[in-house]
Amino acid sequence: MKKKPAFIRWGLLTFAATAVLAACGSAEATDEDAAASNPDAETVVVGTGNAYQPFVYLDENGELDGYDVAVLKAVDEKLDQYDFEYESMDFKNILTSLSADKVQLAAHNYAYNDERGAKYLYGEEAYNNYAHHIAADESTGQVYQSLDDLKGKKVFASPASEVANILETYNAENDDAIEIVYSEVNGELLVSGLQNGTADAAILTKFDVDKYNEQFDINLQASDEALKTAGIYYVFQQGDEELQTAVDGAIKELREEGALSELSVEILGADYTE
């Protein structure tokens, strides 16, 4: 585990205090130097998004923040052999960058699907779990409980997302019955789109439904049952089992220590790790 500066308590006697303080300064400098850089560490470039609060976004200072990043920083603290660097980009470009070897790890709330699984290496330790619900604005008077209810309806989906995969799989078996509105909109634009008829529904996590209702003082209605419950994983290049195994091991340790749950509660408001 990467070293942290030690804190030393000094005694009451002036001479003893001076001696201990001097030793403390020397120890702290050594530890800080070791923590600052490992010349043999391999740099891992992490591709992630910038507009999916609170999972990954840019804060008021333009710095990456959010749950996905916080977990990776905790993972990085456990892996002396790696140093993580972060590149934020549009969601649609993350996996493309992974394929092009511009990044070695993709982080953006990825659930598993077969199409991605054929191209990329998924982690085996989920760091988050969530369930997809159909959501519509109360003002429409519609509550959708199943994909069958969405036949002939327009539904938001980000390109290449898990939601898009759910809808595309359904359409492949049902003569393209649902009109998929491919869009990167979220937050206020997604809510306004549901209210003005750009789309009839969206497929959101219960977390997002609750967040939008509170943030915009609206009333999105979520389906009673989840369409799909998914574990969320980091994604790696095919063949990079060494990095995958290291990251999975660190996540497992964080879970066993309770640190993963603490991060989820602190950032997401509840424990979504189980």
From TrEMBL:
<feature type="domain" description="Solute-binding protein family 3/N-terminal">
    <location>
        <begin position="43"/>
        <end position="271"/>
    </location>
</feature>
<protein>
    <submittedName>
        <fullName>Transporter substrate-binding domain-containing protein</fullName>
    </submittedName>
</protein>
<keyword id="KW-0732">Signal</keyword>
<dbReference type="Pfam" id="PF00497">
    <property type="entry name" value="SBP_bac_3"/>
</dbReference>
<dbReference type="InterPro" id="IPR001638">
    <property type="entry name" value="Solute-binding_3/MltF_N"/>
</dbReference>
<feature type="signal peptide">
    <location>
        <begin position="1"/>
        <end position="29"/>
    </location>
</feature>
